[in-house]
Structure prediction request, 465 residues.
Amino acid sequence: MGIKTTILLISAVILSSCGSGGSNKQTTETKDDAMEISYKVKLLTVDPGHFHAALVQKTTYPQVSPDVRVYAPEGPDVEQHLGRIASYNARANDPTKWNEIVYRGSDFFEKMLEEKAGNVVVLSGNNKKKASYITASINAGLNVLADKPMIISPEDWPGLQAAFASAAEKGVLLYDIMTERFEVTTLLQKLLSQNEEIFGTLVPGSASDPAVSKVSVHHFSKIVSGSPLQRPSWFFDVEQQGEGIVDVTTHLVDLIQWECFPEQILDPSDVELSSARRWPTIISKEEFRGVTGFDDFPEYLSKDIRDGKLHVYSNGEMIYQLKGIWAKVSVTWDFMPPPGGGDTHFSVMRGTKCDLVIRQGADEKFVPTLYIENIKGSSLPELNEKLKAALVQLPYDSLMAENYGNKALKIFIPNKYRVSHEEHFGQVTQKFLEYMEEGKLPEWEVPGMITKYYTTTSALKLAKE
Prediction:
């Protein structure tokens, strides 16, 4: 259980402005110093331009102080962030009690480093700035929990390597938020791929028929925490947000490493890129207005305007080998999902005895569903019996296998294991806090992150050639 307090924490969004370099505290700091010191973790939220920054605080953690320092320039990004936190505090079911202490000013980052009022920097916003934020925060002896992607250009990769080296020297942690590792069908796909009786072993595949494929479809217009998402205009500038091939693909490359080579130390030399390509999503001025609130495209987007419409290079695909296994990663951004739909994920791992396939389309009512397909060496009833025996050994109860047509099986997963994407942020944060308690990351995590960002940024370089 968490530390009990006898005072009421009041958090309200105060939107009054202050001058450049000024501060604006929205707090009623009445806790005594001894109680404040008892918290092991104090969050420092820096320039929260993406809604993922707020999702880290959608839940509370016993070891984390409810007082959170926020450092940001004045503008809509920070106000929307504070509004989201206020909505978590005000919700009827399990409200949070965050107390946001806000500094607004053009020197916000320097102020954060000067005050060092916490020990964990949370970064989720403009990705162009993120590499420098990471380096400076680590060099200042602060832990960093960063939303993906940590970097968006090949030129930033050596600096990221150096940041990890500096983190090791200073005894702090640098970690990115890989939410998809906590999605239940992905967890089951990974666990079953390690069962040779069911899956056999991963086939090598080929460039035209990869052993593992991850395909993701996202949408610019969506609902987050029950409200229509308003995105910052810079989100549509690939020089600030990053192209699709270095953004969402971070998750997909991570899953390939995590599932195919679990807890193995990887190196950039294990990666051999075969091909990469990129293409734009075309957005009208009306669509842009609907999701940003801006009547016109900002000047910095003029380079991407063609015939009055915005061309955003948010889509990308790469085909590569990882330790001799062929893999394909693809990400697509549409403007709006179909009725009743949302972001979708397709994944296949091809084994010598069967394929493990995740689908999330209309047939699945847009719920991720795991199938056993392309069965080899066993009849469907035989594999079904083996699968039932394997499922009861997994750390989930009430899993069931059922026939899906005449040649495949489908895994039934109870709703209690269906955790939303938004809730995954709390799970990742809790795991990061456990690593902080231990004082280190697993030995394979840092090499994996270095290899992952080498893969994504090298794919961008190849796609542009």
